[in-house]
Design a protein that fits this description.
The protein contains five helices and seven strands. The chain has helices spanning 39-48, 64-68, 79-84, 90-98, 117-122; strands at residues 8-12, 18-24, 30-35, 52-57, 73-76, 107-111, 125-128. A five-stranded parallel beta sheet has the order 5-4-1-6-7. Strands 2-3 form a two-stranded antiparallel sheet. Helix 5 links the parallel strand 6 (107-111) and strand 7. The radius of gyration is 15 Å and the shape is globular.
Length: 134
């Protein structure tokens, strides 16, 4: 697909699309995360021009997947699975298992902390953001 320079954008979820606020139930479990709706305007624009949008998260305690699937492809990197395999960067490992032939020269990644460094070092267009709406 020809979309100019960037053909796909991969976004970390927590801290990039969420503002860090969470809702807990009486048992102390996270039941919801706070997203900022305006962030999804630019995601719609990307998909409208044919840029593939992916979400990559290491936290599946709250079902981000069904919500985010409306805007792109959701992928969860299981901490437990990759810790058993002694993998240091579970996000990169999960991505490469699912998409082994990724063209990193046409890929952008948006992260917000040290856990995103390996992914950012692979892509041609890395970016560090806090919550997009901030």
């Amino acid at each position: 697909m020809e979309h100019g320079i960037v053909e796909r954008i991969i976004l970390d979820v927590d801290g990039v699309l969420t503002d860090g606020r969470k809702i807990y139930n009486r048992e102390g479990e996270v039941t919801a995360k706070m997203f900022f709706d305006r962030d999804f305007t630019f995601l719609k624009e990307f998909t409208n021009i044919g840029v593939e949008v992916y979400f990559l998260s290491g936290d599946n305690r709250v079902s981000n997947g069904s919500f985010l699937d409306r805007y792109g492809r959701y992928m969860w990197s299981s901490t437990e699975t990759f810790m058993k395999m002694d993998v240091k960067d579970r996000k990169l490992a999960a991505w490469e298992l699912e998409y082994p032939h990724t063209n990193w020269d046409t890929t952008a990644y948006v992260g917000d902390d040290l856990a995103d460094m390996q992914m950012m070092s692979k892509v041609k267009f890395p970016s560090v953001w806090g919550t997009l709406s901030a």
